[in-house]
Each structure stands twice: as structure tokens, then as C-alpha cells.
């Protein structure tokens, strides 16, 4: 399509697409993607630190994935699993099993993260015959009504929708709340024990709870990394009361935390997992995963799908797994993730608007605050992100008030690309601080 036609279509976007689909940040018109880059209709090359929101973990359009898609299209386009059966869906289940946490070896394939969450909760309720679900404040699990009922990252996502009342929330662990001198692992685990006891005493008996569901690292809610001891306490409480534990690994999965899944990073095995995003390098695919023993209690007709486990998406996923292994992607994530964290810690020392840097692997959150008050600064984030876009690097945002810059590059990113992106971020931070008069405050506080 000629550039003029593309631009004309882009100008018609408000009439063609719903605002909820078209008005996200940064709304960059692109004509191509490759590796760690987008190519804009303006002719510019943009360094991408969003990975399509943690989807293209091995980079955009990896040649091996593209070839697998082309080859698959020569054989099958659609396969309603169960009506027919095909090799790629079975091979994918077989190839996924060794990388899953121990015992999670049976799969229901769907299309998206929210579908995987719906499946996980349905499975838990079906198996336990219990009605209630406990989630954790700040977690995001999707926008369909079932997953929305356990999503509390932002109240606006639930506005007017009256999510069902069969859910309760416990506070998510935030190391910032730990008093000085206390061990966060011990303190936050102790707090959780008290909070769970109060919930069970006053609102719902544990015998009525089918499952607890959480993100092992808070995603859309602000990229908060909980202490390992807190997650172990969640597992312990579930075991004590016969409650199934669901990990939402839609964003943390497929290497983002430096291991295949955050469950392995934190050494906590859930009963059920929801996986998606990075599974197929951009094609729609997800899975609800549990043990064969649990899945066998979920008979024909209790759940279903038309498009889930699409044969082309399954081939893309198989190719993605091969690339992970052949190119040592997990090791690169750990090494480059640590490198990025060190560079960001240095950046924090120079910029008063950075409140915290939070990271695990290449899942990185950069909190932006008003340095005069320490309060979250969502307006500042948008200002900085727009400056970054003008300079040629894409970041995303998260947090309850949009106060966190989300840095989620492909796991194949190089140290040189990290340096390029953070150099542009530093320029944007400096410009923003100068505009707002914050640098003089920093100088006053530091004596420089």
C-alpha cells in the first residue's frame, strides 16, 4: 500500500475503530517489524522495548517462525480440535511438558490470555465444587467478565460491568511497605497469614474457596516483584485448606523472568497455570495447564473452543521453542536483564523523577514520581514516553495511576540496544526535568 493511502486510512481511524482499540499509547503507524525494531510509515526506525506487550519474546518476525507459518499454511488453516486432530497441537503439548513446572502436563489450548484465565477458574471450580475465588489487589487477569471479576489493577476496567460477586481480594505483597530493619520475606509472609485469617474469619470460609489466583510478578498493576517467601506462604495457605493455586503467567511466561516461567524463578509450583503472550511469537494462542489428574475431572462439554490450538499458531509456537533453545534466549535474558538493571540504577542516581527501579529478568518497571512530594506521576510518564517516541524508542506504561514506565524488550535484545534505548530515555528524562524545574530540586537535595 502506498504511503499516501496508508496515511489516509490512518486519518480515518476514529471512524473505523472503537476508541478502546485505537487510542492506546503510542499509536505509531508502522509498515514493518523485524527483530527489536519497528519501521514507521514516516521512514524512521524505532527501537522497540515493548515486544508487542511481552509477546514477541524472540523478536519480531523471527525467520524460523515466519517459515514455520508459511509451511503450515500449505497444510492446514483451521482445525477445530476434537472434530479433527492434527500433529502440531499434539507435538506442542509434548514439547511444552518438559519446560513446565513439575506435574503440569496436560493442556487446554485457547486463543488469548483472558481465555486461559477463564479456563483455569472454570477448571478449579469444577474440580473442587466450590464457588469462590480469591485474587490479589493490583493483579490484572483480562477483560472478559470472568477474568475481570478477579482483576483489580484499575477500577476503570470494572466500571459499569458489575463483575460477579463470587470473588474476594487479599493485598498483593509490596516490598515498599516493609518497615526498615524487617526482612521482606518474613514480614510480608506474616502479614499475608494475618490478612488471610481475617478474610476467612469475617467474609468467606476457606472450605468454600475453589482457588487463589495471582500474577507471580505484578504486571499491568505496576511491575512489582514480591519476595519469594510471600509466594511460598500463598502456596502454604492453599495447601492447608485444599485450595487450588492458579498462576497467571500470561506476561511472566516464556522466559520473561529469566527462567521458562516465574514459577521456576520463585520455586513455587501452582496447581493450574494460564500461559499466552510469548507462546507463539505474535500468533493468537494460549493454554490452561494442569496435571493430567485434574484435567481428567473436566469432561467433554464442560469447556470448549472453536479456534483454540489453531494449527498454524501451534507450528509458530513449536518454532518459537526451538529458537529459545538454539539461541540460548533464557541465558541472554538473565545476562542482559542484569546489565539493564545496573544501567538503570545508575540512571536513577542522576534523575530525581525516578522513584524506584523494579526488575526481574527483562521485566522492568521504572517508577516516575514528583520529586517534590514522592507521589506517583502518571502525567510525567506520558510526557517522557512521548519524548522517547520522538527520539526513536518505544516504552509502555503500567501502574494504577500509569506511573510506571514498562520496559519489556525482546529477550534477544543486545547490550548495545539496551545502551541505545537507555541513552534516549536519559535524554527524555533530562528534558522533562528541565521543563518542570526538577533539576534544581535535585541539585539542592544532593548538593551538586
Radius of gyration: 22 Å
- Could you report the average pLDDT, rounded to the nearest whole number? 94
Q: How many extended strands?
A: 15
Major β-sheet, in short?
Answer: 7 strands, mixed
Order the strands across the largest sheet as they lie in space: 4-10-9-8-7-5-6
How much strand?
A: 15-25%
Q: Name the overall outline.
A: globular
Q: Uncertain segments of ≥5 residues (pLDDT<50)?
A: 440-445
* Helix content, binned percent: 40-55%
Number of helices: 17
**What structural category arises from helix and sheet content?**
alpha/beta
Intertermini distance: 54 Å
How would you concisely characterize the structure shown here?
The protein has 17 helices and 15 strands. Helix content is 42%, strand content 16%.
Describe the structure in your own words.
The protein has 448 residues and is of the alpha/beta class. Helices cover 42% and strands 16% of the residues. The protein contains 17 helices and 15 strands. It has helices at residues 3-11, 13-16, 19-22, 51-54, 63-73, 87-96, 113-128, 145-148, 184-202, 228-241, 262-266, 292-295, 311-326, 329-350, 378-391, 415-436, 438-446; strands at 30-34, 37-40, 45-48, 106-110, 132-137, 167-171, 209-214, 244-248, 272-275, 286-290, 354-360, 363-368, 393-394, 396-398, 404-407. The protein has a seven-stranded mixed beta sheet with strand order 4-10-9-8-7-5-6, sandwiched between helices. Strand 14 and strand 15 form a beta hairpin.
Amino acid at each position: 500500500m502506498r504511503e499516501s493511502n496508508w496515511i489516509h486510512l490512518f486519518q480515518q481511524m476514529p471512524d473505523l475503530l472503537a476508541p478502546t482499540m485505537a487510542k492506546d499509547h503510542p499509536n505509531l503507524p508502522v509498515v514493518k517489524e523485524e527483530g527489536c525494531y519497528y519501521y514507521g510509515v514516516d521512514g524512521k526506525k524505532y527501537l522497540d522495548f515493548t515486544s508487542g506487550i511481552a509477546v514477541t519474546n524472540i523478536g519480531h518476525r523471527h525467520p524460523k517462525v515466519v517459515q514455520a507459518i508459511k509451511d503450515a499454511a500449505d497444510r492446514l488453516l483451521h482445525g477445530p480440535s476434537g472434530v479433527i486432530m492434527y500433529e502440531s497441537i499434539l507435538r506442542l503439548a509434548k514439547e511444552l511438558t518438559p519446560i513446565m513446572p513439575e506435574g503440569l502436563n496436560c493442556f487446554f489450548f485457547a486463543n488469548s490470555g483472558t481465555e486461559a484465565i477463564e479456563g483455569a477458574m472454570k477448571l478449579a471450580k469444577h474440580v473442587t465444587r466450590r464457588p469462590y475465588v480469591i485474587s490479589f489487589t493490583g493483579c490484572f487477569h483480562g477483560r472478559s467478565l470472568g477474568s475481570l471479576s478477579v482483576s483489580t489493577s484499575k477500577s476503570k476496567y470494572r466500571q459499569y460491568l458489575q463483575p460477579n460477586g463470587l470473588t474476594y481480594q487479599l493485598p498483593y505483597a509490596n516490598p515498599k511497605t516493609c518497615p526498615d530493619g524487617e526482612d521482606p520475606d518474613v514480614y510480608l509472609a506474616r502479614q499475608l497469614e494475618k490478612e488471610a485469617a481475617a478474610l476467612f474469619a469475617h467474609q468467606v470460609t476457606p472450605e468454600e474457596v475453589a482457588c487463589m489466583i495471582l500474577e507471580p510478578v505484578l504486571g499491568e498493576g505496576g511491575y512489582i516483584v514480591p519476595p519469594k517467601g510471600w509466594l511460598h506462604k500463598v502456596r502454604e495457605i492453599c495447601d492447608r485448606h485444599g485450595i487450588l493455586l492458579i498462576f497467571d503467567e500470561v506476561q511472566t511466561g516464556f522466559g520473561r523472568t529469566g527462567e521458562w516461567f516465574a514459577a521456576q524463578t520463585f520455586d513455587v509450583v501452582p496447581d493450574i497455570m494460564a500461559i499466552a503472550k510469548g507462546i507463539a511469537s505474535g500468533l493468537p494462542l494460549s493454554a490452561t495447564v494442569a496435571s493430567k489428574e485434574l484435567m481428567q475431572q473436566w469432561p467433554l462439554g464442560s469447556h470448549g473452543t472453536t479456534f483454540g490450538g489453531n494449527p498454524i499458531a501451534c507450528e509458530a509456537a513449536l518454532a518459537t521453542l526451538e529458537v529459545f533453545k538454539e539461541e540460548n534466549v533464557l541465558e541472554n535474558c538473565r545476562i542482559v536483564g542484569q546489565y539493564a538493571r545496573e544501567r538503570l540504577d545508575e540512571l536513577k542516581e542522576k534523575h530525581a523523577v525516578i522513584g524506584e527501579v523494579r526488575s526481574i529478568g527483562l521485566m522492568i518497571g521504572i517508577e516516575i514520581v514528583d520529586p517534590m512530594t514522592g507521589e506517583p506521576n502518571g502525567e510525567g510518564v506520558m510526557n517522557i514516553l512521548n519524548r522517547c517516541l520522538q527520539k526513536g524508542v518505544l516504552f509502555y506504561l503500567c501502574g494504577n495511576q500509569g506511573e510506571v514506565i514498562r520496559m519489556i524488550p525482546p529477550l534477544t535484545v543486545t547490550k548495545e540496544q539496551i545502551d541505545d534505548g537507555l541513552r534516549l530515555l536519559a535524554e527524555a528524562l533530562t528534558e522533562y526535568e528541565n521543563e518542570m524545574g526538577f533539576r534544581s530540586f535535585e541539585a539542592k537535595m544532593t548538593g551538586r
